[in-house]
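Q: What structure does this chain adopt?
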Amino acid sequence: MKRVLSIILGGGAGTRLYPLTKLRAKPAVPLAGKYRLIDIPVSNCINSGLDQIFVLTQFNSASLNRHISRTYNFSGFSDGFTEVLAAQQTPENPNWFQGTADAVRKYLWLFQDWDVDEYLILSGDHLYRMDYSKFIEHHRETDADITLSVIPIDEKRASSFGLMKIDDFGHIVDFSEKPKGDALKQMQVDTTTLGLDAQQAQKMPYIASMGIYVFKREVLEKLLQENPEQTDFGKEIIPQASTTHRIQAYLFNGYWEDIGTIEAFYNANLALTRQPEPPFSFYDKNAPIYTRARYLPPSKLLDCEVTESMIGEGSILKECSVSNSVLGIRSRIERGCSIENSMIMGADYYESHAERASGGRKNHEIPIGIGERSKIRRAIVDKNARIGNNVLIMNKDRVEEANQEDKGFYIRGGIVVILKNAVIPDDTVI
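A:
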């Protein structure tokens, strides 16, 4: 695996995840109480024996850069690194990244300095655990020019994905972007070719790309240089290359979730609290998900009722109830509060007792955390939010979409999102 360079695509402005991406890059969005989205592909790389990793991004990259530099420090006796490459304007390339392929093309001059055989291209906003070494070995064994990791899906979800057709040897022979009707039916394939049993193949007769690719070095460089007008891997580079190159499918049959939207992000986080077995587990000693070590104290729960929830370290909960929720690091929940089906991201810092008594270090009347007797249901509360006493956040009017930035919140798909650093006064009803 030392002959592979990993490139993680950080995505664009993250408009589908806005307002969580208002002040941070999409890969830096907090996940599962203590992690960030970027920790998933980076940890998968490390667990797969891949330690030469670049992350490409161009929006709000300061917090992402800070997280990576503080988290992934490889030994001085190793060639390993994880480095953020932000978009930059040069005399040769005066424009920002125009797409996934264009982002890699603009830094191709840097990647070519590395003596590698393959480039592994990954997405930065998916939740899954995968051993990339098996993926790369399959690529080498089949002597493919390009290999795509694919998932089997049923007909209900198929029209939401870019689909592929394969021949009896697993070679990709056709592509279709989000087909419907008869065009969808024509994309059915025999997924037993990729390793599913007959019963699974009948339930899931379609295959969709995960946005994970491995290219032979010379193939990627040639495709990017010869087709400068093509800016996207999934829609342009790879479909066109299928007529001239050997493209192979690799089946991934585990949990995989694209969490690029507010609703998908919310559902994926709350699914982690399910019992007895969540669809994705962070409790895997053989393939852990890494993140920044903060050395926080254990969480303290004072006469609380907590059911099917995750509580980040360094939190203090007082005489409250929490159900089916994810609470991030340094969360403060005061007396009489009720938190249901929600994600509370916590805080970046502590306020002392004196600061909290005087309204916090920024001279607000409300300290960081959730104030007394407040009730939060089906919501995402971003970091450092200051929620007053007797606040109701439960979308009582069942609004689907709303932009109330001046009041500190948005509503996306019926989910209330409280902005980072927002101040919600006492007795507010949302």
